[in-house]
């Protein structure tokens, strides 16, 4: 027999599936509980990959869409800062980099003011914006603007990097539940990420531990294809899948 908490969380799921986004206070009023109780439920459901948290509201997470960038940046900021600091030593003066549209490395981009003469390729508006205070050469890849992810998607991206050899690529993932490698919610990312990895001297994967519980439909690589995986913590059930991979845990 289900307890009140389980029943309430199922009701929250139903309401989000029906409305896609709801305010905390509206959920509390409909379910006749306090906003504090709803926030606890939302925290639980967010950890299980069902929803995104926005200030004062919750947004349904689906496997074929990407979290809005403003939400991704706010998720686990301290972990992302630690991951960025672990990535930083890999970046050397004069390198040619590819940085994917990952909220995990926004802090890293701010740190790159301490490096000299970098050339950074990216499709992310937020990555480019974080690099503005530096003097590095920033090359935005061509294509169509994805408003939700605040990045350039598909279009001329592959043509934009044809013939480019990267010293270092820094790649992320939206999730990897039930897979043996990182995945994206966008089908077009498959060809692009594979091409970049095959034309990069060093491939880094960066993510925080929450991504292991989030499903994403389009796997673009295996963990074993990366030179290093930088994460705060690796769940026990994924240890075998990462056998042979250099894992840098920065918990």
General description of the model:
This protein has helices at 4-19, 24-31, 35-47, 69-74, 77-87, 106-111, 125-131, 157-160, 189-198, and strands at residues 21-23, 51-54, 57-60, 96-99, 119-122, 137-140, 144-146, 151-153, 166-171, 183-184, 200-206, 218-219, 228-231, 247-249. It is globular, with a radius of gyration of 19 Å. It has a seven-stranded parallel beta sheet, with helices on both faces. A three-stranded antiparallel beta sheet has the order 1-3-2. The relative contact order is 0.12. The mean pLDDT is 86. With 251 residues, it is an alpha/beta fold. The chain is 32% helix and 21% strand. It has two domains: 4-61, Winged helix-like DNA-binding domain superfamily/Winged helix DNA-binding domain (Arc Repressor Mutant, subunit A); 72-249, Rossmann fold (3-Layer(aba) Sandwich). A hairpin with a 2-residue loop joins strand 2 and strand 3.
């Amino acid at each position: 027999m289900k307890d009140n908490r389980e029943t309430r969380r199922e009701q929250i799921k139903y309401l989000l599936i029906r409305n896609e986004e709801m305010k905390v206070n509206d959920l509390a009023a409909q379910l006749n509980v306090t906003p504090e109780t709803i926030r606890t439920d939302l925290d639980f459901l967010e950890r299980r990959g069902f929803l995104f948290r926005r200030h004062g509201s919750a947004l349904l997470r689906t496997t074929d869409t990407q979290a809005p960038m403003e939400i991704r940046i706010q998720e686990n900021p301290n972990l992302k800062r630690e991951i960025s600091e672990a990535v930083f030593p890999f970046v050397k003066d004069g390198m040619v980099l590819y940085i994917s549209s990952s909220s995990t490395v926004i802090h890293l981009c701010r740190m790159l003011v301490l490096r000299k003469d970098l050339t950074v390729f990216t499709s992310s508006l937020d990555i480019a914006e974080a690099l503005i205070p530096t003097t590095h050469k920033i090359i935005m890849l061509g294509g169509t603007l994805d408003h939700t992810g605040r990045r350039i998607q598909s279009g001329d991206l592959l043509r934009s990097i044809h013939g480019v050899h990267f010293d270092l690529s820094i790649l992320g993932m939206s999730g990897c539940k039930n897979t043996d490698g990182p995945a994206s919610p966008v089908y077009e990312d498959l060809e692009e990420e594979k091409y970049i990895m095959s034309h990069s001297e060093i491939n880094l994967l960066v993510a925080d531990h929450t991504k292991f519980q989030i499903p994403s439909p389009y796997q673009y690589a295996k963990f074993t294809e990366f030179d290093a995986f930088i994460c705060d913590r690796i769940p026990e059930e994924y240890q075998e899948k990462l056998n042979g991979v250099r894992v840098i845990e920065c918990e």
